[in-house]
Amino acid sequence: MTARVPDSDPAPQYQFRVAEMPEDDRPRERMHRLGSGALKSEELLAILLRTGTAQEDVLHVAARLLHERGGLRGLAATDLATLGRAHGVGPAKASTIAAAFELGRRAAIEEGGARPTVTSPQDIARLLHPEMELLQQEELRLLILDTKHHVLAAPVLYRGTVSSAGGRVAELFREAVRLNASKIALAHNHPSGDPAPSPDDIAFTREAVEAGTLLEIAVLDHLVFGHGPGRWVSMREKRLGFD
Predict the structure, then answer these.
(1) Residue 133 located in a structural domain
(2) What are the distances in angstroms from CA 158 to CA 117, 147, 242?
């Protein structure tokens, strides 16, 4: 009787490292030769990361990050501490990635020099909701506007825990005063996914409106974002804090 030869384990798939690629196929060289638009997202991310780990090439680290975070939008919404804890990243690389996304956000606001105009809650949601609905922590953001409702800046005022985002009313107006702005709009997210304003949201908005009246800087609206398309509430439309 012939003994059965046990099946051998499948050989592990070898991962080519960037240094082993033909020079013209490496991300940085492809960018110089073809432009950044020709690169895949993981290649662009790999350029920011620069190096991988002993177990993973930088391209595989980049691809894994995108997969784990649900793509670019999810990666952009990941807070700095969480990103820094990801395997193969660390605080320095996390800062580089966060800086790249922030530059992209600011470029989008400027829109080639033609700053967007905010005249309705729909305009606020269009600018902020796609990113803020994915955030794992609450953030309070501002849109600082000139007399023609053009966006001058869109800073993050406060980043809190998964259950709360505080913010002193005075901080709302510091940058607006510096920029000689005439109006601001507020927005924050609820990581729970429910955009219904809380009693604290209403009280904070009322204080902001009263302070803005004294400073002659109008508060146009305060939006609360939940998860999913159209999941947001305009507190001005609901007359919450604007009474």
Answers:
(1) yes
(2) 23, 25, 22
Q: Which amino acid is at 226?
A: G
Report if residue 83 sits inside a domain.
yes
Same domain? 220 vs 125 = yes
Position 8 pLDDT exceeds 50:
no
The answer to whether 131 and 77 have CB atoms below 8 angstroms apart is yes
Distance CA(212)–CA(183), nearest Å, equals 8
CA gyration radius, the chain: 23
Share of the chain above pLDDT 70, in %: 84
Q: Is 38 exposed, middle or buried (0-12, 13-18, 19+ CB in 10 A)?
A: exposed
Indicate if 53 and 128 belong to the same structural domain. no
36, amino acid identity: S
- pLDDT tens digits, one per residue of 26-36: 788 888 877 88
Give residue 23's pLDDT band: very low, low, confident or very high (50, 70, 90). low
Identify which has the larger pLDDT, 5 or 105. Answer: 105
The total domain count for the chain is: 2
CATH code, 88:
1.10.150
Instruction: Supply the range of the domain harboring residue 75.
Output: 18-108
Burial of residue 56 (number of CB atoms within 10 Å: 0-12, 13-18, 19+): middle
Do 46 and 64 touch, CB atoms closer than 8 A? no
Domain boundary residue, one of 108, 140, 156? 108
**For position 129, what pLDDT does the model report?**
92
